[in-house]
Amino acid sequence: MLPQDSLSGAGVPPSGQAAPLLHGLNPEQLAAVTLPAGHALILAGAGSGKTRVLTTRIAWLLSTGQAAPGGILAVTFTNKAAKEMLTRLSAMLPINVRGMWIGTFHGLCNRLLRAHHKLAGLPQTFQILDTQDQLSAVKRLCKQFNVDEERFKPKELAYFFAGCKEEGLRPRDVPVRDEDTRNKVELYQLYEEQCQREGVVDFGELMLRSYELLRDNDPVRVHYQRRFAHMLVDEFQDTNKLQYAWLKLLAGDMVDGRLQTRGSVIAVGDDDQSIYAFRGARVGNMQDFVREFGVERQIKLEQNYRSYSNILDSANALIAHNSKRLGKNLRTSQGPGEPVRVYEANSDLAEAQWMVDEIRQLVQGGTATRSEIAVLYRSNAQSRVIESALFNVAVPYRVYGGLRFFERAEIKHALAYLRLLENPHDDTSFMRVVNFPARGIGARSLESLQDVARQIGCSLHDAVSSISGKAGANLGAFVAMIDVLREQTQGQNLRAIIGQMLQASGLIEHYRNEKEGADRLENLDELISAAESFVTQEGFGKDAVALPIDETGAPLTQSPASQGLDPNAPLLNQPLVDADTGETLSPLAAFLTHAALEAGDNQAQAGQDAVQLMTVHASKGLEFDCVFIGGLEEELFPHQNAMSDQGGLEEERRLMYVAITRARARLYLSHAQTRLLHGQTRYNLRSRFFDELPEECLKWLTPRQQGFASYAPDMRAVGAYQSGARGQSGFKSEAFTSPPVPPRKEAPAHGLRVGLAVFHTKFGEGKVLALEGAGDDARAQVNFPRHGTKWLALAVAKLTIVE
């Protein structure tokens, strides 16, 4: 604890109004709130109450008369954080906070430019382009100057312009290494001239123009340096190069190569939670701040008010493996709490089933509500298996900060192509992808095509032959591509069809050329895995081909030989009889039906109690009672893209640190022996992060395999998962029993009776209402709460008894 006289600020005793503000602060928080004038760094650990410290610091400065409302500048990283700070200040002090300079970098820069628009070379009514508006502006530029959009894609150009501005580079400053860069720089110059003519600025321009205003106008800079005697910056570890340079200009001037500052700058952040390097964030800004500002006071907020010590000790031990840290250790007075539970599944499907079973037990036992349970994953593509498992048992979920798997744009594009292979007359799918990726088919051409289709009374596909000229040629090329692809994929399995479609459609090439297309490519790879998993689970077999349906529409279920099929082929390789209608579906048609059902069901409504699914990046700043972190395997978490670089590996470790510290009461970690990735089964190594966690904090729910051995299924393993498992799935191994589905009763001795609870992989749990028939003709009438009453053919349906 600091000496008492240092806790009350710069010799300012707490006034009657200020004293209540300090009530309940711990010693470190009190020291941070009452810091004397000067520069300081506050290392604020996860859950340490930094928002309270920041807000109370501002209130303390105001209530003790050390600053006026107009003399404080506070920078946050989100509008939500700025609003929360202003709301708290209003509740603390009887002041009008509306005029205070508290906001995001972009918000404050906008305010600065509005006040000095003439000096900044902007009209008073300049408009701000959001991301979509900026892309439209770039597209107009490309059209005006006849830019080859295949070579210089508008979205890539927008990223290039934004990247230059983040580095503080105007077109004349950008280093030109090759002809491609030279062309981009010329377009950057033309884009700037267009924006200036139209009186608009994009987000990058707000920051750069504001920086240049301060740099090039001494009176303006000095005015704000004197005005803002107290500056506070939140989430300092996430600042980029230009943001830090902007702060330095407001703080002081460079004299003889050294920064001569005025007033006080307090940087608040956590270098252990710097996870946005891919957005330009520089964790090194914190160390630069300490050196360049001559920081002598560093306060560590290590008291955590969120989590139990088993969780915090795990986080501390993990992050200690990173070098160049400013250093801190989280602690709590809440006690050890529950151990961190570790589960090893035999497959990604079993991992997801285990998660769902645990979630249901947590909710049913009253341990947590669904909205206080989060499932975190390193890659967006991982959500697909988890979503499917939740969907199957009708557990509502919400994908935080993103879309559910089958609702993501790249997946919907791919599914539209697949639907056209199955049905060329699907006009909705036709319209979705006819010009995606771009093929030079504009809105006017499509309007003409729709008019012709209406007049003739046919589908858009069939109307294409009636369109002439360039539009007809482009439309004809698209239809020909689809028709050829349909012929080429006849007789192929679903995995091969999707793989060939992704290449022929141009989707792979399109997203490969996008700056941030890596996630979308991973999702397209996961679509292949989803299809592979689907055909196996539904009883097709992964090598089942898209066989034609009988011309009469009759199910192909009698004699395989009479239908021209191999009489010795196993049932798995025959078309599937839909358990509801008797309709024979090819693997492709069945998969498209499955995708449509999952995309349109089980999404939580606003305000509904639902499990939260999100990437680790999206979880930053959030907290939950119970957290599951899945897919802890080498090349997945830590991600393969980071494995070759020490800095990348340390960022992955910081990501894991962020994930762990989201949990308040219970933390679950899991990995799988096998995982379906890119349509191939992989045998994964357990993540190195497990070996960096303290053994005394962990509870292994399955026997721990030592070292980095290949985790192929071990039939000799002993022990069993004891947390409520009701049976086995996947490999027939004693060690890896996987809830929630019990062993299937073999037909014809199906073992069903009226009144039994059963489980169906698509419809979830239901109750048997009636039975009829015997052997292969046996049927059951089952009432599923979410899907109604259905008659199911027991020789086909996946029904298991829930005991």
TrEMBL record:
<keyword id="KW-0238">DNA-binding</keyword>
<keyword id="KW-0347">Helicase</keyword>
<feature type="domain" description="UvrD-like helicase ATP-binding">
    <location>
        <begin position="23"/>
        <end position="308"/>
    </location>
</feature>
<protein>
    <recommendedName>
        <fullName>DNA 3'-5' helicase</fullName>
        <ecNumber>5.6.2.4</ecNumber>
    </recommendedName>
</protein>
<dbReference type="InterPro" id="IPR000212">
    <property type="entry name" value="DNA_helicase_UvrD/REP"/>
</dbReference>
<dbReference type="GO" id="GO:0004527">
    <property type="term" value="F:exonuclease activity"/>
</dbReference>
<dbReference type="InterPro" id="IPR013986">
    <property type="entry name" value="DExx_box_DNA_helicase_dom_sf"/>
</dbReference>
<dbReference type="InterPro" id="IPR014017">
    <property type="entry name" value="DNA_helicase_UvrD-like_C"/>
</dbReference>
<dbReference type="InterPro" id="IPR027417">
    <property type="entry name" value="P-loop_NTPase"/>
</dbReference>
<keyword id="KW-0067">ATP-binding</keyword>
<feature type="domain" description="UvrD-like helicase C-terminal">
    <location>
        <begin position="309"/>
        <end position="621"/>
    </location>
</feature>
<keyword id="KW-0540">Nuclease</keyword>
<dbReference type="Pfam" id="PF21196">
    <property type="entry name" value="PcrA_UvrD_tudor"/>
</dbReference>
<feature type="binding site">
    <location>
        <begin position="44"/>
        <end position="51"/>
    </location>
    <ligand>
        <name>ATP</name>
    </ligand>
</feature>
<dbReference type="Pfam" id="PF00580">
    <property type="entry name" value="UvrD-helicase"/>
</dbReference>
<keyword id="KW-0378">Hydrolase</keyword>
<keyword id="KW-0413">Isomerase</keyword>
<comment type="similarity">
    <text>Belongs to the helicase family. UvrD subfamily.</text>
</comment>
<keyword id="KW-0547">Nucleotide-binding</keyword>
<dbReference type="InterPro" id="IPR014016">
    <property type="entry name" value="UvrD-like_ATP-bd"/>
</dbReference>
<keyword id="KW-0269">Exonuclease</keyword>
<dbReference type="Pfam" id="PF13361">
    <property type="entry name" value="UvrD_C"/>
</dbReference>
